[in-house]
Amino acid sequence: MADDLPEIAVWDPDEVSIRVARGFQVRDVLREVRDILMIDLGAPASRGELLICFCGMRVEFPRELAPCGAAAPVG
Length: 75
Fold this sequence. Notes:
It contains 1 helix and 2 strands. The protein is α+β, with helices and mostly antiparallel strands. The relative contact order is 0.17.
């Protein structure tokens, strides 16, 4: 999670990660990350809070999202 991003979620190809801005609703974050994965990276469609990377692995979320009742880190 980061401060001062221009959008809710930003794909960083150099870091092979998606940075997520603080302070947004979990549903908005999930929608933005899902769009990046599917549209920009060609990941398969996923439903609910489980997101799948284009490589087929489950996407891990920052711990800051876990208290919201959704998107807990995958271990």
